């Protein structure tokens, strides 16, 4: 285990599975204590937390609906209160709603914006009240913010594109406080929501330069770099971990 984040406290939203779980585990490997949020599956979240504890780090799984601003603020404040600090925030929780634009509902719109746009803003707003100099905010976006190869992605792509502006503006605002803000845009990644052996996998592979899906650990590695000491001079940046999807 590396000690580049020793005694740091990280909060990873949506950390019970897939990319979020890989991020939580990687930050713990680097020495951080980790709080992860989940919405539904407590057992899965506790499994990730237990894996972190086996690495010798502290961990906690907290049930939070990222679409509820009050609950999200309470979760952020609770981490700082219980753990005595908050150094790293990873805004990973997201929702995916797709379909022909004329069939998308106002509920689809409101829920997508609430979780994919409002939640990162609310969590970041709450976190910076506690973050010391050297703090890190890392937003998790999507490759479809820059390139939408399939129809039906208008709502999701819009919501992820909003993170580009949020990241740049917060990076500028928080720079004088030595808090960096960056965006990681994953490309096709092998998770239960988008398996590398799914029905569209061959087509999706062909859209990348490298010809294959990422593993969640590939995304987590980029996040760990931005969250660690080597990422101290990057802020307002977008890092595409997409195998050349956006080339």
From TrEMBL:
SMART domains noted in UniProt: PKS_KR
Database matches in PROSITE patterns: ADH_SHORT
Residues annotated as domain Ketoreductase: 8-187
Xref: Gene3D superfamilies: NAD(P)-binding Rossmann-like Domain
CDD domains per the UniProt record, alphabetical: SDR_c (cd05233)
Keyword Oxidoreductase attributed: yes
EC number: 1.1.1.-
Alphabetic keyword roster: Oxidoreductase
Segments passing through the bilayer: none
MF terms in GO: oxidoreductase activity
Keyword Transferase: no
Pfam families per the UniProt record, alphabetical: adh_short_C2 (PF13561)
Homology family: Belongs to the short-chain dehydrogenases/reductases (SDR) family.
Protein name, UniProt field: 3-oxoacyl-ACP reductase family protein
Species of origin: Actinoplanes sandaracinus
